[in-house]
TrEMBL record:
Pfam families: Sulfatase
Sequence similarity: Belongs to the sulfatase family.
Keyword Heme belongs to the record: no
Name of the gene this protein is made from: Arsi_0
Name the record gives this protein: Arylsulfatase I
């Protein structure tokens, strides 16, 4: 699979150069969810997998390459949602968003030159029919409601949250029990 992908990308780059697009393009490798561990995938060191609300099911790497990037060779850990790609790539192509009803945000400045973060909050998912679960991130904190998906082996939040009662570890005896889980994404 890796060889086939490498060959396909090589062909794409060769064609971009041959047809004169090499100086004005962007190659983006993007995923929508973590690996499926049942089929041999790994999200290490993140907990969880595809179809879970843990970081291993929701956080994915993205790789961008192209001369239209003002800055390259850096790591950006800011929040990006799948719905942000359309307005971001539209801006990269020089277009303007005239539809104010788009869910996504234009993150082109943040991505192309390592500009300041645009998002501080992020709704991961809301499953209200079958699984009754949801997750949201605000700043460095992620809140999961309901069944988050396996595995269920994390540590408690390191700082005290005064006046708020939260279950910060999964019940070992019954993982399908409705729970509230809060943790610091950047916590050790």
């Amino acid at each position: 699979m890796v060889t086939a992908m490498d060959d396909a990308i090589g062909s794409l780059v060769a064609d971009m150069k041959r047809f004169g697009f090499w100086d004005n393009f962007l190659i983006a490798f993007i995923s929508d969810n973590g690996a499926d561990v049942v089929n041999g995938g790994s999200n290490y060191p993140l907990r969880g997998a595809k179809m879970t609300l843990w970081e291993g099911g929701t956080r994915v790497p993205t790789f961008l390459y192209g001369d239209i990037l003002q800055k390259s060779g850096y790591v950006n850990n800011n929040l990006i949602h799948a719905v942000d790609w359309f307005p971001t790539l539209l801006a990269a192509a020089g277009g303007r968003n005239t539809d104010k009803d788009l869910d996504g945000l234009n993150l082109w400045d943040m991505i192309s030159r390592d500009g300041p973060p645009v998002r501080n909050e992020f709704v991961y998912n809301i499953y209200d029919v079958e699984y009754k679960r949801a997750a949201i991130r605000v700043g460095d904190y992620k809140l999961i409601l309901g069944y988050p998906g396996l595995p269920c082996d994390w540590v408690q939040v390191s700082e005290e949250l005064e006046g708020i009662e939260l279950e910060t570890t999964c019940p070992k005896s019954n993982i399908t029990e409705r729970g509230v889980y809060l943790f610091n994404i950047k916590g050790k």
